[in-house]
Write a structure and sequence with these properties.
Length: 278
């Protein structure tokens, strides 16, 4: 995978270099099959496991980039967004002249499915509150709330790794996914604890759910201004929220200048402006 700079207004676009540079935009319309991971599909061409990279891009405040890929699945690396964040910070981020467009939520939207819940409420900034209730001695009920507009993503979310059991792993391998997976790229749960500790945060599991949610909400195609609340949701509900938001234009408006000054939210952007392009 390589990440290339793109002009303002491009958004995030995946490019399959193994298929004559076929491009798939990271937007809700291209969402395909969603189970263990979020996949995009356009004209039968698939890009799988987009959420961790998209999450890193949102967390870094990157609106425009081309992501070249010579395969259908993004590299899983350590199962978090941290390696992507570090690589991007190393090359630097260029501030572009065009004002960023935000999708500002004006009216609440709540979705329920059994005991799963996801909602978005009006807010002047982007925040997420996630709850999980996972029947495992190390997890149980966890809630994590984070304000994302102030750089907290990099400190509190980016390093949280994905988790699963050996059984999940087998299912995913049967689906042709996680070809590179090993105990270096996810937390492997055993009945009593984890096979490959220590955890990076005591509540790493719920933080990873926030990471996934941020990555899936990137499919809105714009940075969002809203408070997102999720309880035991997953990729399917995250992406359902995205498509419901986009479908109902009475829920939101496009704004260029949020109440908070976006330049102070991402100080790394201007510092990195003189660096190499991305
Ligand atoms: Zn994930």
């Amino acid at each position: 995978m390589s990440i290339l700079p793109a002009p303002a207004g491009t958004g995030i676009v995946f490019r399959r270099t193994d298929l004559d540079g076929f491009e798939i935009e990271a937007i809700s319309r291209n969402v395909a099959r969603v189970s263990y991971a979020t996949s995009l599909m356009k004209k039968g061409v698939l890009i799988s496991t987009t959420e961790h990279l998209l999450s890193a891009l949102i967390g870094l405040g990157i609106d425009n980039a081309i992501v070249e890929l010579d395969n259908l699945e993004l590299p899983i690396l350590d199962g978090s967004a941290k390696p992507f964040v570090e690589m991007i910070q190393r090359v630097g981020i260029r501030k572009q002249r065009r004002a960023r467009k935000y999708l500002k939520i004006n009216r609440e939207l709540e979705l329920r499915e059994g005991n799963k819940f996801i909602a978005v409420y009006p807010s002047e900034s982007y925040s997420v509150s996630y709850s999980i209730n996972f029947p495992h001695p190390l997890i149980g009920k966890e809630t994590f709330r984070v304000e994302l507009s102030n750089g907290s993503y990099l400190k509190h979310i980016a390093a949280a790794r994905t988790f699963g059991s050996r059984e999940d792993e087998q299912v995913m391998r049967n689906m042709g996914l996680i070809r590179g997976a090993s105990r270096e790229n996810c937390i492997v749960l055993t009945r009593e604890g984890v096979e490959n500790g220590p955890l990076r945060f005591p509540d790493e599991f719920v933080r990873h759910k926030v990471l996934d949610l941020v990555g899936d909400l990137a499919l809105l195609g714009k940075q969002i201004l809203g408070n997102v609340v999720a309880d035991r949701a997953g990729h399917a509900m995250h992406t359902a929220l995205v498509s419901r938001i986009l479908r109902d234009k009475t829920l939101w408006e496009e704004v260029t200048h949020p109440v908070k000054n976006s330049e102070t939210e991402y100080p790394a952007r201007s510092e990195a402006a003189a660096g190499s392009a991305l």
